[in-house]
Every structure is written in C-alpha cells, then in structure tokens.
Amino acid sequence: MENGLAACCNLIPGLTSIYTWKGKVQKDAEVLMMIKTDDRQYQKLEQTIKELHPYEVPEVIALDIKRGSKDYLKWIQEVVSL
C-alpha cells in the first residue's frame, strides 16, 4: 500500500487450497488477497508479490473489470500512483 501499487487490499482468511505441486497433492490453509490496482501498476505489483511471497510460484491472477461503480473505479485511478 505504501508504495502506491494498490488502492485497496482485501484479506480473506480461512481458505483451504488443494493443489498438485511437484507431483504430489497438497492441502494448505491460505489467505486470499484481492488487490485493487490498474494496468499501469500491474507489472510492478506482480514483481513485488513474487519477491515477497514465500511460495516459489504464488498465485497472481488479473481479472478485467467489466462493470463497476464509476466513482469507485475513478478512486482507484486517483489513488494508484504513476
């Protein structure tokens, strides 16, 4: 947040992830983080996550916004620094 890469982050605890890693099925408790940013900051944000996350391959997925509150989307643009 302090580096201007995101306008808002939501932490959603209590998730269980089941996945295959290096040929073995794994089951782990995880926290989902939803980060609101824009295209200008995506690459920097992804790189920062990869540098800070303990996983070798953290889940980083970008979702396009099809619709949303114009005021909220404008706020994201204003808050996320160039």
UniProtKB/TrEMBL annotation:
Matching InterPro entries: Ion_tolerance_CutA, N-reg_PII-like_a/b, N-reg_PII/ATP_PRibTrfase_C
Pfam assignment, any one: CutA1
GO biological process annotation, one example: response to metal ion
Domain of life according to the entry: Bacteria
Molecular function GO labels: copper ion binding
Gene3D superfamilies noted in UniProt: 3.30.70.120
Protein family membership: Belongs to the CutA family.
Protein's UniProt name: Divalent cation tolerance protein
